[in-house]
Amino acid sequence: MRESPLTVSSIKDAEGHLGKCDPIMARLIKKHGPCHLSARRGTAFHTLATSVIGQQLSAKAAVSLVSRVSTVAPRPFRPRDFASLNAEALRAVGLSSRKANCLIRLADRMTSGELALARLRHLSNEQVIEELTTIVGIGRWTAEMFLIFGVGRPNILSLADAGLQSVAARLKIPRDAR
């Protein structure tokens, strides 16, 4: 079953619910203010490409690397721009061979029509994850980031996300509840 994308209204409702049910969440919402996920939209390819670039990096390092990649492929990232690059050009701006090849494969699959990211919006979360993870270099975490930031799906909890794990540990959330 496909869930509706996040909206300002659905996020406000969720924040109200979480604030009533969980004192830690209530404190975080009060401290940091409302969630702005519904306003964060880019093209599907750009979102997926930046997720690939940011794999296993801190947010700061990911932003820096995205900036360097944009010197060889203009933002927002588009499949045709990556399809025209070779791995060496991407490696020269700091991408690993694995990430460079992944982005080129992704772009090739999109430009050939084999993969239509717009079609993924109509699939269930698990179907999207299954389809994206057929591309070497895209794992579950990257597919989950695409679902959150590219499609705006609610109820995605990326348990393998290092940032989420770090925050949960700092908030002293029991490991079995993470």
Determine the N-to-C terminus distance. 24 Å
Supply the number of structural domains: 2
**Helical content (DSSP H or I, runs of 4+):** 55-70%
Unreliable parts: none
CATH homologous superfamily designation of the largest domain? Hypothetical protein, domain 2
Strand content: under 5%
Could you give a short description of this structure?
The protein is mainly alpha-helical and 178 residues long. It has two domains: 1-39, no CATH class; 44-150, Hypothetical protein, domain 2 (Endonuclease III, domain 1, Orthogonal Bundle).
Top keywords for this entry?
single chain; 178 residues; mainly alpha; Endonuclease III, domain 1; 2 domains; 58% helix; globular
